[in-house]
Write a structure and sequence with these properties.
Radius of gyration of chain B: 21 Å
Helix content of chain C: 55-70%
Number of strands of chain B: 7
Low-confidence stretches of chain C: none
Low-confidence stretches of chain B: none
Number of helices of chain B: 5
Radius of gyration of chain C: 26 Å
Order of helices and strands of chain B: HEEEHEHEHEEH
Number of strands of chain C: 10
Strand order of the largest sheet of chain B: 2-1-5-4-3-6-7
Largest sheet of chain C: 6 strands, antiparallel
Chains: A mainly alpha (137), B alpha/beta (176), C alpha+beta (625)
Order of helices and strands of chain C: HHHHHHHHHHHHHHHHEEEEEEEEEEH
CATH superfamily of chain B: Glutaredoxin
Strand content of chain C: 5-15%
Helix content of chain B: 25-40%
CATH topology of chain B: Glutaredoxin
Oligomer: heterotrimer
Mean pLDDT of chain B: 90
Largest sheet of chain B: 7 strands, mixed
Shape of chain C: globular
Number of domains of chain C: 4
Structural class of chain B: alpha/beta
Chain lengths: 137, 176, 625
């Protein structure tokens, strides 16, 4: 079953300049980005998967071919090599780009509802069912 | 108790809808991310100047009145489109206009500024884009307004348009 | 001419739908209702056909054709391009609405005339709302001035067979839920309704909606997988979530309907679910088309469209939910469920589906809520949904396996254990065998494999028992889910990736394959230029497997670059290659992926679809339509 398949770049180019993309496209992680230390590389990939590509729609920098994504991927690897911890790298990025750049919303007072409601919904749902059951039984 | 439960879906429904309605009616751009530097101090950086021989040290600058910082490049078409507004800003006495040349070829930039006119009091070179990252830049052109205390007061992503031009002038006035 | 005719047809459709609304109120006006129903369908069909015709003949005087088509587009995509844009897709929505309108009308008989009339009345308002929306904000029949010799081309990315049928299938899903919605409103608004088996009328529509929504979503995922080429097929993108939420409610609704039929219980709950399923479909439409958030899938931004849809949603939702609040008391059924019974399982399924839906909804709109209250922007991406939704779905899948085996009433725990023991054993054996053979351990992988085989084992046991009590459609559909989970588990947990720079006649290895870079050429396609590479794949015994030929294309008319991966699929894995940048001197960037079990996702979804079709067929036979 040999198939030629389409792969697309999904970058909505508005009025922002991303011409680098058109002349010198890269395809997400490139061979020369990959760190020799496997542990470092794994950390870099995991962090990258949680960093939003600021110029794409809902992609992480790990998946995106945008020039900024590549810059950030390299930056993350440099910081890992310099000995920074994951939290420090995240802080570096959020200091500059805000919480928006994190794909996993941080657990802070703003996001309490977001993180706890699923659990509360579940408890509520189970309670309602048992309450209704008890009343009728 | 049962009656309360029955009204609950309707209440939730209208709550959600009103949030949507509110967001639709205010002026917002779903694509634009607000700068995380707003009301914070200007990022600390050093850079080579394109024309001058000295190094640009951020802690020294940004204290002499209001500064407009514009990230641009010769390969960026919208930067060319907004250039006329940069020139207009450079004519205003109350504002220092500084350009940061993003991932560009210095020779090309010199020629570009010669052809179009140089509105910048100083042009700094950001060869690898690191300065831009420190400023939280994600798509050039980007324009920042910094007050005389070195605090970032405004950021616009994309080329300056007529509307934005007026807005920036307003902000400059507010910070004089 | 087309413009005039198109607008005339739309206006006629509007008149027919409003007439249907008015006439349905009056009793025994069968003939008139028939005229409106048929008229609606004919006008809608003709206007849709007219738009297709304009696209096919490249009539660039029509604005819609100019904006979205080009003479060089292949015929298939000229046609599918009609519903690939916002305005055209609304004509398709309307067409499907009129078809379902007709199907509801066919239910009409002397006994249910009030019920069907009320249903048609509600359906008429929905249809009128969509037609009005189209005419006021999204009219495809507008004149293009000045005249143009060619169109604005079209995104080559969207020229794909899966993407071509993806919207029609989704719309069948959404419109099917609209029928259930209308029936729910009809039931609630009529007095003395205990005699009408409204749930029997609702069931085929809910089945159809759910079945087609399933395959519609699956096709979107298939397309994303082939488009993006690194094993991704679901991204928790807002528009994907917009289709997933009605699906979750639909699943709950489908299962609760069984309880209403068999136990005459949960009637009020089913009436609420039918309302919610459609409301979520409309809210989904709103999210996609209003420009309120950014997404891969959104159509053009236009807040005025958003406001219209919002008002429309507010009217539909407000009326139906307030009506529910007032009238649902009559449908409360006191009934006791044993936890370890079929009813108990369905209840658990419902709770978990609702909680999942609420979570997905919260995650999707949370950035908007934060923005509304604090003016800050945050992201809620894949990591959030994966960590919240998957843990909720796991118990749902466990229950799904055991539910069909349980009895309707309370049973002795020992008896239950005896029933499920064979499948427990089978699951354990198969799981252990799998891990022995593949020797690849991952915690989430193990859970996925256990869940998948739990479903499949239970289905096998049910098949062996051959009891007439089990719906064959359900068996097939559940089996499909089991296979789907297997595919999801394989591709998510055990993907291997190799990123290298290769020169011609060098090779790389992945899994047990050896891949040799044979050659690279420039080629010319019908509307693109490309660089095409040829890789020969051999296994570890030096047997030739296949040639993989990825391309990088440039479409001059649209000024778009695309990357075309080359994929080799078999039952155990997908092997595929993406070509990157490079040149003959330094070599080329090449990414190779080994994705296990991917095809089972699509096979599973197809089997679910077949199960749904079988169920619809059996259901229609049962109620003798």
């Amino acid at each position: 079953m040999n198939r030629s398949i389409l792969i697309k770049f999904i970058l909505i180019i508005t009025t922002i300049c991303l011409t680098d993309l058109i002349t010198n496209s890269s395809y997400a992680v490139e061979p020369d980005e990959i760190l020799k230390n496997q542990k470092y590389e794994l950390r870099a990939r995991n962090i990258s998967k949680n960093i939003r590509c600021m110029v794409c729609q809902n992609q992480s920098i790990d998946e995106s071919s945008a020039p900024l994504a590549k810059d950030l991927r390299i930056l993350i690897r440099d910081k890992i090599k310099e000995g920074n911890k994951d939290e420090e790298i995240y802080k570096f990025l959020t200091d500059r780009y805000g919480d928006f750049i994190l794909l996993k919303p941080p657990l802070n007072s703003k996001n309490l509802i977001l993180w706890f409601f699923p659990f509360i919904f579940l408890i509520l749902g189970i309670y309602v069912v048992f309450y209704h059951n008890k009343k009728s039984g | 108790m049962k009656k309360k439960i029955l009204i609950f879906p309707s209440i939730l429904f209208f709550l959600v809808l009103s949030i949507f309605f509110y967001l639709l009616t205010i002026e917002r751009n779903p694509y634009e991310i607000p700068s995380n530097l707003l009301n914070k101090k200007v990022p600390i950086f050093e850079a080579r100047s394109l024309f001058k021989n000295e190094k640009f040290i951020s802690s020294d600058e940004f204290k002499n009145g209001i500064t407009l910082v514009n990230f641009f490049a010769t390969w960026c078409k919208p930067c060319r489109d907004e250039h006329v507004y940069m020139k207009s800003f450079s004519n205003e006495k109350s504002v220092n206009v500084i350009g940061i040349n993003y991932k560009d070829n210095p020779e090309k930039t010199v020629k570009w500024l010669k052809d179009l006119g140089n509105p910048y009091k100083d042009v700094l070179i950001d060869k690898n884009g690191k300065i831009a990252i420190d400023w939280g830049v994600y798509g050039i052109p980007e324009t920042f307004i910094i007050n005389s205390n070195g605090i970032v007061k405004y950021r616009h992503v994309g080329p300056v348009t007529n509307v934005i031009y007026k807005k920036i002038n307003l902000i400059i006035k507010q910070n004089e | 001419m087309t413009i005039y005719l198109g607008n005339l047809l739309l206006s006629l459709s509007l008149i027919f739908s409003i007439s249907q609304f008015i006439i349905s109120k009056k009793k025994n006006k069968l003939k008139f209702i028939s005229i409106t129903v048929n008229g609606l369908f004919i006008c809608s069909f003709l206007s849709f056909a007219l738009l297709i015709y304009s696209h096919v003949i490249s009539d660039f005087n029509v604005l819609n054709v100019y904006q979205n088509s080009h003479t060089t587009k292949p015929l298939l995509y000229k046609i599918s391009g009609v519903w690939g844009n916002h305005e055209g897709s609304l004509l398709l929505w309307i067409l499907v609405l009129t078809i379902f309108n007709y199907l509801i009308f066919k239910l009409y008989n002397n006994n249910n005339s009030n019920f069907v009339s009320r249903t048609l009345q509600t359906q008429a308002i929905i249809t009128a709302g969509f037609i009005l929306f189209t005419m006021l904000t999204s009219n495809p029949f507008q004149k293009m001035i000045p005249e143009q010799s060619n169109g604005l081309g079209f995104n080559p990315i969207l020229q794909d067979p899966a993407l071509a049928i993806h919207p029609p299938l989704l719309y069948i899903g959404y419109v099917g839920f609209s029928a259930a919605f209308s029936m729910s409103v009809a039931t609630l608004s009529l007095e003395n309704n205990q005699k009408i088996p409204w749930y029997n009328y609702m069931k085929p529509f809910v089945l159809a909606a759910w079945t087609f929504l399933t395959i519609g979503i699956a096709l979107g995922a298939i397309w994303a997988y082939y488009e993006l080429g690194w094993g991704g097929w679901w991204f928790w993108d807002p528009v994907e979530n917009a289709s997933f939420m009605p699906w979750l409610i639909g699943t709950a609704l489908l299962h609760s309907l069984i309880i209403v039929e068999k136990r005459k219980s949960l009637r009020a709950w089913v009436l609420l679910l039918s309302i919610l399923a459609f409301l979520l479909s409309v809210i989904g439409t709103f999210l996609v088309r209003s420009g309120i958030l950014t997404s891969v899938h959104t159509f053009a931004l236009d807040p005025s469209r958003g406001i219209y849809i919002l008002i429309f949603t507010a009217i539909l939702g407000g009326y139906s939910l307030i009506l529910f609040g007032k009238k649902s008391k009559e449908y409360f059924d006191p009934n006791y469920f044993a936890l370890f019974s079929k009813e108990g399982s369905i209840l658990i399924n419902n709770v978990l589906m609702i909680v999942t839906c609420a979570t997905v909804f919260l995650g999707t709109v949370y950035p908007l809520i934060i923005e509304a209250f604090t003016n800050e922007k945050i992201s809620v991406g894949e990591p959030y949904f994966n960590s919240t939704v998957i843990p909720i779905l796991i118990p749902a899948i466990l229950v799904m396996g055991v539910g069909p085996l349980l009895a309707w009433n309370k049973e002795e725990k020992l008896k239950i254990f005896k029933k499920i023991f064979p499948s427990l054993l089978l699951t354990l054996i198969i799981t252990i065998l799998t891990f022995l053979i593949y020797q690849s351990y991952s915690f989430t992988g193990m859970i996925g494999v256990i869940l998948s085989f739990w479903i499949i084992s239970n289905n096998i046991i049910l098949l062996i028992k051959k009891s007439k009590n089990y719906s064959i459609g359900m068996l097939i559909a559940h089996l499909g889910i089991g296979l789907l989970i297997l595919g999801v588990t394989g591709s998510s947990n055990w993907q291997e990736e190799k990123i290298v720079k290769l020169k011609i006649n060098t090779s790389t290895q992945i899994n047990k394959y050896n891949i040799i870079f044979k050659e690279i050429n420039e080629i010319k396609g019908p509307n693109y230029l490309a660089i095409k590479a040829n890789f020969a794949v051999y296994d570890k015994n030096k047997n030739f497997i296949t040639d993989l030929k990825p391309e990088n294309r440039y479409y001059p008319i649209s000024n778009i670059f695309t990357t075309e991966a080359s994929i080799h699929t078999n039952l155990s894995r997908d092997l595929y290659i993406v070509l990157g940048e490079g040149n003959s001197n330094d070599g080329w960037v090449v990414k190779v992926y080994h994705n296990p079990l991917v095809i089972w996702i699509w096979i599973g979804a197809l089997i679910v679809f077949i199960g749904g079709i079988v169920s619809i067929n059996n259901n229609l036979k049962k109620i003798k339509i």
